[in-house]
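Two records follow; treat each independently.
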Amino acid sequence: MTGRKRRTRPQFQLGWLPLLTALGGALFSLSPLRGPLEEGIGLGLLYALRGPASPPGEVAILGIDHESAQRLQAPDDPHNWPRHLHANILRNAQRGQAELLAFNIFFANASADPGADRAMAEAMRGLGRTVLTDYVKPRQLRSGLYVESLVEPTPELADAALATAPFLLPRDTLSASSAFLTFFGDEERRATLPTLLMLAYIQRTHCAELGAWLGSADPELARIAAQSPPCQTRPKEFEPTLRLLIEQLRARPGLEASLEQALLNSRFPAATRRLLRSWAGVLAGGEVRYFNHYGPSHSFPILSYQDWVGDPPESTLAALAGKIVLVGYLEDFQPESTEGLFYTPFSAISSVELAATALANLLEDKWVRPAFSPVGEGLWLLFWGGVLGLCAMRRSAARGFALILGLGGLYLAAACALFGLRGDWLPLVAPLGLQLPIALLTWGWLNYVRRAERERAMQSVIHRFIPVDVFSQLSRHEDSATLPNYGRMAQGICLATDAGRYTALAETLEPMALARLMNAYYAALFEPVTRHGGWVSDVVGDAMLAIWIARDDDPGAQEARANALAAASAIRLAVRRFEKTHELVFPVRLGIHYGELRIGYVGTAERGEIRAVGDTVNTAARLEGLNKLLGTHSLVSERTLEDLPDAGVRPLGAFLLPGKSKPISVAELITDPEAGPCPELRQRFADALALFNEDRWQEAHAAFTLLNLHFPDDGPTRFYYKTCQSYLAEPPQGSDTPGIAVEKPPPAELFNHKK
């Protein structure tokens, strides 16, 4: 056991740990990994928790599948299918009263049969509401430099269409199925295919409401509505009107708020208000929208192309009534090829289903909306991390853990609810995959540090009364009923102290002043004991008992005995400083003995203490009391001094201590050579003691008489002078002197018999 003081980490430094939670999330939001992980993992988790959803009933797909290709004996190249087949589809869509029909097929080249193109164009004019798909083709200007050019359908088909538009996906997203564009073009803003279909559908089905709404919102819009009706859906007139409205909404930022207010003041049904709000939001909003996927492939109603080429019955045609029909190739059109396939969190889907998803999102105004801008997300993660950090710092470990997990669960539930209701996309990877584990680790670390600090504080208190090895063994006794049986035998040194004039001092001081004085006194005593590897076992009034336990690899306890003697000398010096500081005389007496003792629990299961018991403890206490008789301050048994060179002692002879049956050889420990007996006194005392031990009482009496005349203040000399006088008057019985019997028991009896 050592007296080294442990250094503890200041608590305020631990307060910086929770900042890792906040800063970790904020820095992650700036990382290039943020986008791929949030789109791939976070968004995928939201889809998995939400599950499939039902798409709006306004959208249907007329799918060209592998079975249709085989039955119609069409060529493998989907763009070269006979266009008279498409003409039949258009006529049947007109019979079925489809609201709009769009081909997600490229018609960039004229057909080998001019009559087929003419038939398809006539069928498109008959329907009057057909939209064709453009596509963007990269064109190389020079090595390493490309420009994109828009490839439109053949002029004959384009003239017959309501409009043409491409279906475009941004290139800076994680996957091609993550987001789509609503507009394109730098100088002239043009709508993409899903945007065009959505605007045309609203303007066709809600023409009167749209005109009245625009007219009530703003005078300029009322003028535009009068001159160029927004519900205009005739070829060559639809797109100019659309561009005019886009210019107004984008040039006048406050116009969208006016439209919203007018919509709130209207008496339109909720479904109509939702469509009109989506119409204005698309025209005024940004170009990129994240897909809100509804489910795996075939989530939309799929009509087989082969069933619509011929002359389907009226019951079949009714499936197209009022619908926006997209014609395109399904994912199983060419089973051996993956070209034209897109991968969603649910499954692989075809291009026409992806276009239908974008259109349905715009109609429902339910595309996936990132909840924050990049800067806003960083600030949110700072706030969220700060909240988790505060939870991690709670003093109650159980509450902190429950709060962190509870907040994480609430966050996930809120993210799922918002995603399911409106498509709002709260980040998940940083808050739950990074910050939540950091908060839990921080909580665990802080909890560990606090628990360690508490344990160190408790052990620092316990170790003042219990040795480290004893405490470690005692802590293994989980059952308190076994505590009274705990104990172990050991070789140890006991140092007993007692203070003179304590009783007189206690009578003159009030209890609080006496307590403060004794605390300062014991601080002076405890420090040398602890510094030299000892353990304070008992404190009673002005008496102290300190123990040194020998290590197993020190069979003679030589190191422990040397430490105890060094502590005794240091105690004497510390008490002198204490006396000088407090301006009083408070002499201390010490008794030191080495032998076997038991370190263990003394008491019952309900109440007890760890103490050292045995004859070694009793002997040390008797030696301390013997100081009073001999007029000394520090006595040590000669067994304690065995094999210790330069111990600095004066042998005082053998004594039969009270309650003992065998004598013990005693020596005076000279703690201060300058203030202790001089060499002449020590030598003459040793010679006189030798005569006494040889039972030569007359000669010993003469020697001690002369010594007492020269050194009248030496207590041992005075004791032996008087002892020789008594022996001359009445010699002791027996030839083998058992030692000088000490009749009066010392006050330090308290150590083993407390009352």
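The next record belongs to a different protein.
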Amino acid sequence: MTRWLAVLSLLLVATVAQSQPMVVRTGEHGDFTRLVLRLPDGADWNVVPGVGTVTVGVSGPSVTFDLSQAFQRIDRSRIADLTDVGNGSLEIELACRCEADSFLVDTNLLVLDLSEAEDAPLPEPQSREVQVQPPEPSSTGSVSPLVADLSKVRVGLAAGIGPGRQTDPLLPKMRRPADALDRQTQPIATEDAEPANNVPQLGEQIAGDLATAATQGLLSPSIQTVQLRTEQRGTVDSIPPDAGSLSTDSADLARQLVAGVTNATHETLRGGRVSIGADTCVPDRKLDIAHWSEPDSEPAVVMSKHRSALFGEFDRIDKAALRSYARSLLHYGFGAEAKVILEMGEGNPDPLLISLSYLVDGRPDPGRFFAGQENCAGAAALWAILSNPNLGSGAHLETDMILQAFEALPKHLKEYLGPLLAERLTGAGFADAARDVYVRLERAFGLESDRIALGRANMDLQDGNLDDAAARLKPLSETGTSLTPEAIQARISLAEAQNAPLPDRIVELAEAYASEYRDTEQGAGLWHAHIRSLLQNGAFDQAFNALHDARGIPDDIQSETRELAFHQLLTRAEDLTFLKHALAADDTHGGESGVTNDTLLGIARRLVDLGMADVALDQLDLVAGQGEDRAIRVIRAAALMDLDKPEEAEIQLIGLRGEDVEIMRAEARRQMGDHVFAEKMFREVGAEDAATTSAWLSGNWEEMANGSDSVMNEAARMLQQAGTSMDDNDVTLQAAEDIFAESESSRDTIRTLLETTRLAPDT
């Protein structure tokens, strides 16, 4: 009885194991989405494409599919949905016009790769029967599956005995089993590749593969960025002397890692940089914008053709036609129109095309699709630079590759994007590459067009070649072309650099363009330029009137302009003009209006110098961060001393150090009548004149008599000296002459002292 129960239990376990659903595993690998199924032993399979679907059929008793993990690592850009329709069939609903590439790995792993093929027909049905040869019985009975697998003889390219090499099908390289074998038996086919048995290059390839795998989420690196630097493209650093050489087995293992971990071609690694955890570089074939439209075709004809193909059966939008239409619009530079077309489709639009829709119009990409790709050795670096207005001088750029990518752009895009590219390159410290951009533009158009002239003028401004910039900007800013607004802004920058006034004609044009373009994208910049022109010419009244009319201007531009206006008012305006606008009731320039603390403190300091200490104290109340701010306390102390409050001023200076503080502290003591202490402090900081004055006021004649040869020291010596006396009974001519000389010297000293201490008539 026990024996029958054991047999029944085994049968039940086998039945349960056999009826377990097949787990559908997926992975995203850039150009394609991978789906993997582990087939039951001996099962047949087939792949049948349909209209917007691909159906995978698997034979076997009670075949079901576990879809719980299907969308954990992929989005729905290629696979919209997965459905177990029963009878061993899995229906894949496509979100793109994709081709299905299916193959079998190690007899029971079914791999299905879905990749976009815009103009290719849907794949033909594929199927493959897996013939499992039953083990031959031995003299001792049946052979176990493990023994049969170990004794299996394999023929062909991977000949051998026993099971074949096992690889994880979710790793993103092997599109077919032969790919891995090819990588094991053939050198890597690149233009400047070393032989396949070159161990140092193989190690660098492994590093690149691991980096790509980490980028795609297959690995979890413990570091963020690794850079492999090489002196020249295509060469690799030598192995450190203390590193052991790889054996043949190690090299073979390395080749397996190369074959299994990545689907890259190592082109980015040849640039000498590997980024772990950053975005991978968009390949050049996806950015071949020059071939996104029919050559030598009229734009109107091309657009009409694409619009007519946009709607298919039942007025449904053809996704492939929509994508092709958007690419043609981008080719001709219609970025905003391409964005509208892309948003007409179902689901999320292609982020690459959305990003380009901003960039071809010269606008920054809010999605930052190309962020971190400035170091790429290809077209991606070009678009990354165009998308980053704050590139900075620390960027490492492959300028030769960037210029090649620029050269490949359509002519009309070169003309529009060239000056912007040159501006970004100049800002990053690549002035020579920026000049090369203009050379290429001039060669392409045969002359220095207005846009090229404007770009070169801006470069001259940045390089300090002000005369060359003026020669180019004068005609551009006065001829009334589409570039005149930009030229006027550059002309204002030139006047600021020269510290020279602007011609009245330019100021009038700046005002006219600011009014005309007020409600456009250029409006804020021209409004800012108009106020700059007025400030540069010292027209503060007109500038502040224009500053108050900020309708429709973004807050950040308002704050920047307001700060500039008050800074110019502080440093350049006359006293009456300064007081008029600094103290205007409606000029509440503190708080969140954009005026910085430095400017507010400068205004308060100038008010103290003008004798308006009480107003200066009110100004200080507008400054953020009161507390222990040194500058605020020093200015407040100066204002309090001006208001004859030296005790309060000295309290403000407690704990502060510095020569300016010591002078103010001595002055406070002088105001309090402590002239002895004030004299000592003035002498410690080297303020001899102030020390002499304090010594004079303290009546320290003896100390002053030993001082320098100033008039006060001379007066002190005079007071200290006993005059020549003469006995009335013994009057001599010599004594009379001595008394006369002393009297004359005293008169001269007193006369000089009075002249030195004379008050001005207006005080």
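Discussion point: The longest strand covers residues 79-86. How would you locate this feature using only the token line?
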